[in-house]
Amino acid sequence: MNTLSFSISPRFGHSTGFSLLRTLRGSATVLVAATTVLTGFANARELGNSAQQSTKKNQTVTPAPAAASTAAVKPATSTASGRIVPSPIYGVTIDDISGLSNITQSLGKLSKKPTTRIVFDENVAPSYYRDATVAINKVSYVMGEILDSQYVDTVTVPGYLDRTSQYLGALGDVVDIWEIGNEINGEWLGKNADVVAKMSGAYDLVKSQNKTAALTLYYNQDCWSKPANEMFTWANANVPYSMKQGLDYVFISYYEADCNGLKPNWPVVFQKLATMFPNSKIGFGEVGTATRTQKADYLTRYYTMKINVPKYVGGHFWWYFRQDMVPSTKPLLNTLNSAISAP
What we know:
Elements (H helix, E strand, L loop, with lengths): L4 E9 L3 E9 L8 H15 L40 E6 L5 H10 L5 E5 L10 H8 L3 E5 L11 H15 L5 E5 L10 H17 L4 E6 L12 H8 L2 H6 L2 E5 L12 H11 L4 E6 L8 H9 L8 E7 L2 H5 L5 H11 L2
Helix pairs in contact: 4-5, 9-11
């Protein structure tokens, strides 16, 4: 039986205070025990004092098989896929690979060849994603997200690096860009020393195989709880010099609902980012909204942005592509096509 479970995520807005967001996982409805819900709320209160959670987590996915034991996994030895992703990047995100034929059909309908960011779910073996990644690779460039920020705190440093090695070994020939850290300065990712070790260790593994590495930061102007986690402050203090010089891409995740609807001065933001990461291509690594009436506006506004900063490549990676544009008959696919075709 499929199950429906709730992950209660704390979120402190800079001026709006405490609110709870629920993450749907699973495709069928079941009764949830009252004790489970109460426990979730208690945990949220405890975590809420030190964490701020991205609203992208309103997602629905199909449960995938758990990963096998990783104790005997050898270092990955696969070769690079050999594809250079052209600029600008027309990115979309897939957080659920079920209904694969409809996904690839929608991707194939886009007027510009997209780059599809596949979210590799927690506790899932890379073999689960092999067929889907091969199929998506045929109609799109591929960025593989090693682990979503919501789950980084659930694995140890060795576990995160072992997971990275497993995915590199299994999918290194069909993934073009490896996202070695997602929303890496988020306040919910756990102990800072562990976060840095996971990020830098994954980067070293990816670059040791001469593959393309991307880091996604979480933009949080005036909506952080801890000043140390402000995006530029954290990146300056915690991203090693080798990564500042060597990352192929540095992306920004931004959800306006997380920051009181703030619309930043993006050219200024990206120029500052380009200064900090002088050799990296830069852009958006995640955007989106769960509010249905705002989706068309967000899609058009973000994908048509003109940002005159060297090495800006767009990206965007709309989080809700599968929900909003699969199957291809959904109107928002036309909205995205119009946006990426705009002069």
